[in-house]
Amino acid sequence: MKTVLLSSAYLAPIEYYTKLYTADRILVERYDHYIKQTYRNRCVIVGANGTLSLTIPTEKEEFPKVLMKDVRISDHGNWRHVHWNALESAYRNSPFFEYYADDFRGFYEKKYFYLWDFNEALCDVVCSLIDLHPNKIGTTDYQIELENEIDDFRDVIHPKKNYKEVDPSFHPLPYYQVFKEKFGFIPNLSIVDLLFNMGPESLLVLRDSQR
Q1: Where are the domains of the chain?
Q2: Is the pLDDT of residue 64 over 80?
Q3: What DSSP character marks residue 174?
Q4: In DSSP terms, which residues pair with 58 in a beta bridge?
């Protein structure tokens, strides 16, 4: 049985979802210390001006270290409206945006208090739309010493790390992108880039991007 350990992620990149596709069991970390400038609270999409990072603001905590499961979402900067407008602007001309838009719009209208809950609810919807059914559970404590059969990707899938160097099993399969003629194919964007552009074929792209 193959088990992978992942951090929580906001509309995670395609690399993340290849692990959900291939693993028999997925542990999603709830008890790590929250780290900024990671996929925990940001995703990367591509629009008319190139790549764009969408970041969820979080509440400033009383203590310097806070567990991921306790991180609270801030309402600062009207971010829900900003993120939804960015997604709509980037993907309204994609083949499947209108088909899936209603499945996502509610996440930017309803108020979630905790980042972990928001991320996991979004991930569950994405998996359902892709027809992906991972055996995914949240961790019950933080494990430093991992069992040999657990592959730890908590710090591997990271916006500042080159997947070619840290994850040789991931080989992103090129697919249609709205702005491909303008920017060329951009690999490992948020899963929504794949979903809005490829629809039901997203599962095949995930399958063929992991070796």
Answers
A1: 3-207
A2: no
A3: P
A4: 73
d(CA 192, CA 44): 9
Distance CA 134, CA 90 (A): 28
Confidence bin at 149 (pLDDT 50/70/90): confident
* φ, ψ at 73 (rounded to 5°): -80, 135
**Which residues neighbour 78 within 8 Å (Cβ) at sequence distance 6 or greater?**
none
Q: Compute the distance between CA of residue 171 and CA of residue 203 in angstroms, rounded to an integer.
A: 15
Count how many residues are written for the chain. Answer: 211
Which pLDDT belongs to residue 15?
98
**CB neighbour list of residue 84: distance below 8 Å, 6 or more residues apart:** 104, 105, 108
Token pair recorded at residue 209: 């991007």
Beta bridge partners of 210: 170
Residue with token string 């629009």? 47
pLDDT digits (tens, 9 = 90+) for 78-106: 999 999 999 999 999 999 999 999 999 99
Count of Cβ atoms closer than 10 Å to residue 85 Cβ: 12
Residue type at 73 in one-letter notation: I
Token reading at 154: 């908590």
**How confident is the model at residue 162, as a pLDDT?**
96
